[in-house]
Specification:
The complex is a heterodimer of chains A (440) and B (480).
Chain A (H helix, E strand, L loop, with lengths): L1 H12 L7 E17 L2 E19 L2 E8 L4 H18 L18 E4 L10 H9 L3 E17 L4 E16 L5 E8 L4 H17 L10 E7 L1 H10 L7 H5 L6 H6 L9 E4 L18 E6 L2 E2 L6 H7 L15 E3 L9 H5 L2 E14 L4 E14 L2 E5 L4 E5 H7 L1 E4 L4 E4 L11 E4 L2 E8 L2
Parallel strand pairs in A: 4-6, 8-13
Antiparallel strand pairs in A: 1-2, 1-5, 2-3, 5-6, 6-7, 8-20, 9-10, 9-12, 10-11, 13-14, 14-15, 14-16, 17-20, 18-19
Helix pairs in contact in A: 1-2, 3-4
Chain B lengths: L6 H7 L6 E17 L2 E19 L2 E7 L4 H19 L15 E5 L11 H15 L5 E19 L4 E19 L2 E6 L7 E3 L7 H19 L2 E2 L3 E7 L1 H13 L4 H4 L29 E3 L22 E5 L2 E2 L6 H7 L7 E2 L8 E2 L4 E3 L6 H6 L3 E13 L5 E13 L2 E7 L2 E5 H6 L1 E4 L6 E10 L4 E9 L2 E9 L3
Parallel strand pairs in B: 4-6, 9-19, 10-17
Antiparallel strand pairs in B: 1-2, 1-5, 2-3, 5-6, 6-7, 6-8, 10-24, 11-12, 11-16, 12-13, 14-15, 17-18, 18-19, 18-20, 20-24, 21-24, 22-23
Helix pairs in contact in B: 1-2, 3-4
The chains are: A alpha+beta (440), B alpha+beta (480).
Chain lengths: 440, 480
């Protein structure tokens, strides 16, 4: 893939005229997908996909184009040149872009991660035996992913990784469920079988008859996977400088009213673990570490170079959409073994589901409990709970209601496959909250 | 720019000992344009083009999605899909035969008058810029945008058992948005909620007078919301406009009736359903006023088509008749697996994803009440327009939806504007509280380009048309 990207880039840069700029972005994958229901195979297949995105700047205008890379050099170069021709004409018609970002040549990079993954042809035999005897449902995604970026000033980045992810649920006869996600780069059959076995043991707790809890406010422990979902909301009308400026960020109270979260809450963009490329679609390299909220105080927002120009602030080379790409929340002091004791009486929520802003200005988020969620009394798990809706503000559960933060971090992989397989992780601890509102 | 592919040549070159082979070619060009705060932020064209080769071997389907559409590339894809299917067949969930891919021939073309080339990039940017100027009614409008997306899709499907289908779509998404803010008090008004204005039609859509009139209204209403009271809290009647009924139908009916969910395929991602296979024919889903159809034949609705991605011919069918659940959203595979009657809804997001059960156009049929009748029958309630927040549980029971714009209804009259109108409920009790259904005059056609489901994940386009509706005894509330 890297050769295809290099050949295409060179051919398209040589097609430019004086005064024209071109930034090329490449996203590709060779993937295997196997979908399971009831420990059997529902669907299976392979996907080869790659797209080349072009950002063309000329005449004070910015145009974008994108096409599928067929891997036939002559077809792809012809498609790329026709796309440049189209954008050349369009750049004469559309209005001037006062905030256009010209490419620069800072430095190039190449990061190819070599892994000992699971060969496609071995996947079924490796996966299926450990599932037997359970109602196992989920998806196995496997294979290589590629990211590239280059501009006509000579800067070039390449990132290549191979990974697998088995994202699954185990289901009891009474429809209670436990979530699992076995992901990594190097395949270990032994580790896989142990991981599934641990999930199976968790399932035994779900065999207890579920109880219905009333609406109201409860002391609540959120496992790291649930915390990661809350943090994900910061990437949607939250931490973005543009969304703050455009009046659609839940962080408005922190920016405009100096409202602070708990001093126990600290989060940063941290690329040091290398789970995703540091370069963005404009070819800019983000700082390895960027503090976002430090001990409850809004420290930095995510600022793309375009927002920097538009709002006259400094860029921190965020992606165009100003979402977090590698968030890491600081751990606290609470040992996971002591969670139930500290919780004493209340809710233990392992996963949450279908979050949305219910009042963006107020920082209020609604969603549902899902999977292994329990009622706890006297520091002991009593039983799983029936699904409940919550609706509460992050200004409360990451603010004055935040009691304790776990002392261990969990890496929660990004498993989305919309359009293409995603890269990246959220690294975070669990949290203990004194009061959390269930509403339905 | 489009590569011309001879699918028959590709199919004839495939040499694998499969029970069945199909090739689905999808070419799609999306052209989004957007003016925000007076400057162009998007002028783009994104093209995706590839084929999905699907084979049936030993009762198991296997697929290979590839942009390499040469004879060699497609033949190799078929071989690898065949190998995948053979290995998987030893652990198959269901043993299919060729009947899972019925044979049809036919064509479909979106209805439109003016094609994409009849409106230049410059003209469209100027129109969007003018619309922005209409949205910016005050300095308190801190951000405003006008956007459109033109989508051209060509779909072809042929198979070893004689299917030969060609469908060409021209679609539009259009939105206007204005955000008024004072500090952290911020209110956004749009044109039909989260990209709710989307249709199959051509450039004739861009009637400037209507667009500018709507832009003026949206800007003024954003400003109005800034100083409005919070929506009241309590149990009361709610009248829901068509652009929010769209979301109500989508989340609490459409997804719940997808037969693959009921069969458990989606339990790890989108979720299960409170509906059980034995409920079809007997479950009183809603009041007798409730008539829900799967209607791929409605002209200009976003997800109209003649055949689904498995090649099944699409027809209008009742899903819920007089409040009783009668049919599920199950394509041919789900119909075979479940033994239920279904519809032609086996759909994919493109050439790189396998089809699954999806919504298409799911509509609520009009009733007999005028809007004045509905409002006049309410002593204490709220009228709500345009979705801005949506969430529902994995069984499609407990939902909570938020709207952009509300009006109090007091003693049969619309009175003052309220902000942050939200409501919550549980699907079947809520639909059984359907007390009034608007007539044809209140019927609005909307949809969404962002319906997510499936593993691997897929986003597809769906349409929802509905009259204005009245529900009683609804939990209503506002913001913080």
């Amino acid at each position: 893939m890297q050769n295809i990207f290099n050949d295409l880039s060179d051919a398209l840069f040589s097609y430019l005229k004086n005064g024209e700029y071109l930034v090329i972005s490449f996203v590709g994958e060779n993937s295997q997908f196997i979908r399971f229901n009831n420990a059997s195979i529902r669907q299976t297949g392979l996907v080869d996909d790659a797209a080349l995105s072009l950002k063309f700047i000329s005449n004070g205008r910015t145009c974008y184009g994108e096409f599928t890379v067929s891997s036939h050099n002559n077809i792809d170069i012809e498609n790329g040149r026709k796309e440049i021709d189209r954008m050349r004409i369009e750049s004469e018609e559309i209005p001037v872009d006062p905030f256009l970002v010209l490419p620069e040549n800072f430095a190039s990079s190449c990061d190819i991660k070599v892994s000992d993954g699971l060969p496609f042809e071995n996947a079924v035999d490796a996966l299926v035996p450990a599932m037997q005897g359970m109602d196992f449902v989920g998806i196995f995604a496997n294979g290589k992913m590629f990211r590239g970026n280059a501009n006509n000033l000579g800067q070039k980045h390449w990132y290549e990784t191979e990974s697998f992810c088995l994202d699954y649920s185990l289901v009891t006869s009474e429809h209670q469920m436990v979530k699992g996600c076995f992901a990594g780069n190097d395949w270990s059959q032994d580790e896989y079988e142990k991981y599934v076995l641990r999930s199976k043991r968790k399932l035994s707790l779900m065999e207890r008859k579920p109880i219905k809890v009333d609406t109201g406010k409860y002391r609540t422990w959120f496992e790291a996977a649930a915390v990661a979902d809350f943090l994900g909301m910061f990437s949607w009308n939250g931490i973005s400088e543009a969304s703050l400026r455009q009046g659609c960020s839940g962080f408005g109270r922190m920016r405009h009213e100096d409202v602070r979260l708990s001093p126990k809450f600290t989060i940063a963009e941290d690329f040091s673990q290398g789970f995703c490329p540091k370069f963005n679609s404009n070819g800019e390299v983000s700082p390895e570490f960027l503090s976002l909220i430090n001990k409850g105080t809004l420290d930095n927002t995510l600022v793309s170079s375009r927002s920097a120009k538009e709002y006259n602030v400094e860029s921190n080379y965020a992606e165009h959409g100003e979402y977090m790409r590698s968030p890491r929340m600081e751990p606290g002091n609470l040992n996971h073994d002591e969670v139930l004791k500290h919780l004493d009486k209340g809710l233990l929520l392992s996963n949450i589901h279908y979050l949305n802003w219910s009042d963006n200005s107020g920082g209020r988020i609604t969603g549902l409990t899902r999977y292994a969620c329990f009622w706890v009394e006297g520091g002991e798990i009593v039983a799983p709970i029936e699904t409940m809706r919550f609706d509460d503000s992050f200004y409360r559960f990451f603010g004055d209601q935040l009691c304790e933060v776990e002392n261990k971090l969990t890496v929660v992989p990004e498993v989305s496959t919309y359009g293409s397989r995603s890269l990246g992780v959220t690294t975070c601890p669990g949290i203990l909250v004194d009061s959390f509102a269930l509403t339905l | 720019m489009k590569q011309n592919i001879d699918l028959k040549e590709l199919l004839s070159a495939i040499d694998v000992p499969a029970q069945w082979v199909g090739i689905r070619e999808v070419y799609e060009a999306q052209t989004p344009r957007m003016i925000r705060d007076g400057v162009p932020v998007t002028n783009a064209r994104s093209v995706t083009h590839g084929v999905m080769v699907e084979v049936l071997a030993d009762g198991q389907f296997g697929y290979y999605g590839t942009p390499n559409m040469s004879v060699e590339g497609v033949s190799l894809a078929a071989e690898k899909a065949f190998q995948q299917a053979k290995v998987a067949s030893q652990h198959a969930l269901y043993n299919f035969d060729e009947s899972a891919r019925p044979s049809y021939k036919g064509e479909y073309k979106s209805p439109y008058i003016k094609d994409r080339n009849q409106l230049s990039a410059g003209s469209l940017n100027n129109l969007l810029l003018d619309a922005y100027n209409h949205l910016k009614v005050s300095d308190k409008i801190v951000s405003a945008s006008a956007l459109c997306q033109i989508i051209e899709t060509n779909f072809k499907f042929i198979s070893s058992n004689g299917s030969d289908i060609s469908q060409d779509f021209l679609m539009l998404e259009f939105d206007l948005s204005a955000t008024a803010a004072e500090g952290s008090n911020q209110q956004t008004r749009t044109f039909g909620g989260m990209r709710g204005t989307c249709r199959q039609m051509g450039m004739e859509y861009f009637d400037q007078y209507e667009i500018f009139a709507n832009a003026d209204r949206i800007g003024e209403q954003a400003l109005e919301l800034l100083s409005a009271d919070e929506c009241p809290t309590g149990e009361m009647d709610v009248i829901i406009a068509s652009d929010q009924m769209m979301l109500q139908i989508h989340e609490s009916i459409g997804h719940a009736l997808e037969v693959d969910r009921i069969l458990g395929d989606e339990r790890n991602y989108a979720g299960w359903s409170f509906v059980k296979l034995e409920d079809f024919g007997s479950l009183q889903y809603g009041s007798k006023l409730m008539n829900i159809t799967f209607d791929p034949t409605m002209e200009s609705e976003f997800a109209s088509y003649a055949f689904d991605d498995g090649g099944l011919k699409a027809t209008k069918e009742y899903l819920i008749k007089d409040g009783v659940l009668v049919r599920g959203l199950g394509g041919q595979e789900s119909q075979i697996r479940s033994g239920l009657e279904g519809v032609a809804n086996f759909r994919s997001s493109g050439w790189n994803r396998a089809p699954i059960d999806r919504m298409a156009n799911i509509n609520l049929e009009p009733g007999e009440s005028t809007l004045d009748d509905l409002i006049g029958s309410v002593d204490n309630g709220v009228y709500m327009e345009s979705n801005k927040s949506w969430s529902i549980d994995d069984y499609r029971n407990k939902f909570q939806f938020g709207c952009e714009y509300g009006k109090l209804i007091e003693n049969g009259r619309l009175t003052k504007t309220v902000k942050n109108p939200n409501y919550r409920g549980i699907s079947t009790p809520f639909w059984n509280n359907l007390k009034g259904v608007g007539n044809e005059d209140t019927f609005g056609i909307y949809g969404t380009p962002n319906c997510g489901k499936g593993e691997p994940n897929q986003v597809i386009r769906v349409g929802h048309a509905s009259p204005v509706c009245l529900f009683e005894n609804v939990q209503v509330f506002g913001g913080i």
